[in-house]
Specification:
Blueprint: H1 9-22, H2 27-41, H3 49-67, H4 86-167
Length: 168
């Protein structure tokens, strides 16, 4: 392996593919994948070009995610534009828009839940007021019935009294 040049075309393509796949992930995912890669593929020697190519892709992807700057000196292959940063900006904008929408919906749901709780409390207080008023109505109806009975008894006593006075 010592006679191998610094990189071959397959190394460059492997780097580009790895880097492209990694920048689609977030920092935590990249760090986790890097740790898994290092523990899986490190053989303790410095002769493994595959290990260093992939490791460099991890480092550049981490740097890009942390700073937003793409590594310099990378050749654009086909439709891939790493230096412009345009590969993920549309997706990032969509994600931010969706996150703001989600936050707005979450706030709206919280507001609606608080309004619902206020409405439920108001409903309970109105139901309590209805029960109190029904009790007052029943009490007044009983008083009215008692008063009518008293008047009927009083009138009947007066009629009987007048009848006795006229009879005698």
């Amino acid at each position: 392996m010592a006679s191998r040049p610094s990189f071959f075309a397959d190394d460059a393509l492997s780097y580009v593919e790895s880097y492209k796949d990694l920048i689609a992930k977030n920092l935590q995912q990249i760090n986790q994948l890097k740790e898994e890669f290092e523990t899986t593929y490190w053989d303790g020697t410095k002769n493994d070009h595959f290990y260093y190519v992939k490791l460099r892709a991890f480092e550049h992807a981490l740097e890009y995610k942390a700073t937003g700057r793409a590594p310099e000196g990378i050749v654009n292959l086909g439709d891939v534009e790493l230096n412009s940063g345009g590969g993920l900006s549309a997706d990032d904008e969509k994600m931010q828009a969706l996150e703001t929408d989600a936050k707005q919906f979450s706030d709206a749901v919280k507001n609606m839940q608080s309004e619902l709780q206020k409405g439920q409390k108001r409903e309970l207080s109105l139901k309590g007021e209805i029960i109190q008023r029904e009790q007052v109505i029943k009490r007044l109806q009983r008083q009215m019935t008692n008063t009518q009975g008293t008047y009927a008894l009083l009138i009947s006593v007066l009629i009987i009294g007048f009848a006795l006075v006229f009879w005698l």
